[in-house]
């Protein structure tokens, strides 16, 4: 007992100081925390890694030896690519970024007045360039697509051509034969009256779309009567019945033989979820073989082979977040235990009181 108290005093001082030499971890809360390659200063004000740092969740710098980037979101960014090409931008006045969101070589000037970007078309083994003026109203692409939203627009893809008029009231498309999607055919709808899809491997009928509809493919049949309140689906990979937001049941199946691999039943949309191996009542209750939470009182989870860690209180209603655990969670964690096959170690009031109970 005396040895445990001496070790507790050396490695922990209330919630304010903690050290774990075996994990390269120490914290002087709430000012500083270090864990392996990560350092926090008054998190979330500042966090650093060996290749990046972030301040106020808005200022970010990264240098991994190949790419360099600095940004003050959403106003300023600059950097250098692996090829040694520099870039910068002062949003919304002018700039160029090599890759942001899904866009490559994004250029803009007086956004939303003008921007240009590229996107990959892997199936066609080429890049597509888009130009936009007065986003989102006017655009044109080098594949012949163009639009004057919401009046009229034309879009081309590898296997299909799409058009709209007074979007989203009237849309229609034609499809060429292919092996990857639903095959040749056409689709159209006129909101809020009627819609139809007729393709080689897909048939849909929509009445007052998207509220009432029936869809059929070689793998799936689905009814919506009306969406999103009532949905019924039967298929090769999933059987699902939903009465939103009251009840839903879904069976996920193996494609090659239809055997059920997993199931979930929900009540109150996602308020209560019952999986094969876990039960959730958000945010109050989670119970599975390796995790348990009774929020905001107690939480425990498996930490390795036949070991488990638990703590009281547990104020965060989602699973462990490293930054909160390093910097803040100790302030409200009054009791912890570490459960092993032969014994359980207990820690009360940040290690001031410690004891071990052995198992028979």
Task: Describe the protein's topology.
Elements lengths: L1 H10 E2 L3 E4 L4 E4 L3 E4 L2 E4 L4 E3 L3 E4 L3 E5 L4 E5 L3 E5 L5 E5 L3 E7 L2 E7 L4 E8 L4 E8 L4 E4 L4 E3 L3 E5 L3 E6 L4 E6 L9 E6 L3 E6 L2 E6 L4 E5 L3 E5 L5 E6 L2 E6 L3 E7 L6 E8 L4 E4 L2 E4 L3 E4 L2 E4 L3 E7 L2 E6 L9 H6 L7 E5 L3 E6 L4 E6 L2
Antiparallel strand pairs: 1-2, 2-3, 3-4, 4-5, 5-6, 6-7, 7-8, 8-9, 9-10, 10-11, 11-12, 12-13, 13-14, 14-15, 15-16, 16-17, 17-18, 18-19, 19-20, 20-21, 21-22, 22-23, 23-24, 24-25, 25-26, 26-27, 27-28, 28-29, 29-30, 30-31, 31-32, 32-33, 33-34, 34-35, 35-36, 36-37, 37-38
What is this entry, summarized?
The chain is mainly β and 360 residues long. Helix content is 4%, strand content 56%. Strand 25 (220-224) and strand 26 (230-235) form a beta hairpin.
Structure description:
The protein has 360 residues and is mainly β. The chain has 2 helices and 38 strands. The protein has helices at 2-11, 322-327; strands at 12-13, 17-20, 25-28, 32-35, 38-41, 46-48, 52-55, 59-63, 68-72, 76-80, 86-90, 94-100, 103-109, 114-121, 126-133, 138-141, 146-148, 152-156, 160-165, 170-175, 185-190, 194-199, 202-207, 212-216, 220-224, 230-235, 238-243, 247-253, 260-267, 272-275, 278-281, 285-288, 291-294, 298-304, 307-312, 335-339, 343-348, 353-358. The chain has a 38-stranded antiparallel beta sheet. Strand 29 and strand 30 (272-275) form a beta hairpin. The protein starts with a helix and ends with a strand. Residues 1-10 have low confidence and may be disordered.
């Amino acid at each position: 007992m005396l040895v445990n108290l001496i070790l507790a005093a050396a490695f922990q001082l209330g919630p304010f100081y903690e050290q774990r030499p075996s994990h390269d971890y120490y914290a002087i809360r709430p000012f500083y925390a270090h864990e392996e390659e990560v350092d926090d200063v008054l998190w979330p004000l500042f966090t650093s890694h060996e290749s990046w740092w972030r301040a106020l969740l808005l200022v970010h710098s990264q240098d991994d030896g190949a790419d360099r980037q600095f940004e003050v979101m959403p106003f300023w960014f600059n950097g250098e690519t692996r090829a040694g090409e520099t870039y910068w931008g002062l949003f919304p006045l002018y700039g160029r970024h090599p890759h942001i969101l899904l866009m490559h070589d994004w250029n803009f000037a007086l956004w939303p007045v003008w921007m240009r970007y590229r996107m990959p078309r892997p199936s066609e083994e080429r890049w597509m360039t888009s130009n936009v003026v007065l986003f989102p109203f006017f655009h044109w692409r080098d594949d012949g697509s163009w639009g004057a939203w919401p009046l009229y627009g034309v879009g081309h893809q590898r296997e299909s051509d799409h058009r709209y008029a007074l979007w989203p009231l009237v849309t229609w498309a034609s499809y060429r034969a292919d092996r990857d999607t639903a095959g040749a055919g056409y689709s159209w709808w006129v909101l809020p009256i009627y819609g139809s899809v007729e393709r080689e491997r897909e048939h849909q009928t929509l009445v007052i779309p998207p509220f009432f509809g029936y869809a059929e493919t070689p793998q799936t049949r689905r009814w919506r009567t009306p969406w999103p309140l009532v949905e019924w689906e039967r298929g090769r990979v999933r059987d699902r019945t939903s009465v939103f937001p009251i009840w839903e049941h879904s069976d996920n199946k193996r494609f090659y033989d239809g055997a059920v691999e997993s199931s979930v039943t929900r009540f109150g949309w996602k308020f209560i979820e019952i999986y094969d191996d876990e039960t959730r009542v958000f945010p109050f209750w989670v119970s599975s073989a390796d995790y348990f939470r009774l929020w905001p009182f107690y939480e425990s989870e498996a930490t390795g082979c036949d070991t488990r860690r638990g703590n009281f209180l547990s104020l965060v209603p989602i699973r462990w977040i490293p930054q909160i655990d390093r910097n803040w969670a100790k302030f409200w964690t009054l009791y912890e235990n570490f459960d092993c096959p032969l014994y359980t170690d207990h820690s009360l009031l940040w290690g001031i009181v410690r004891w071990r109970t052995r198992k028979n």
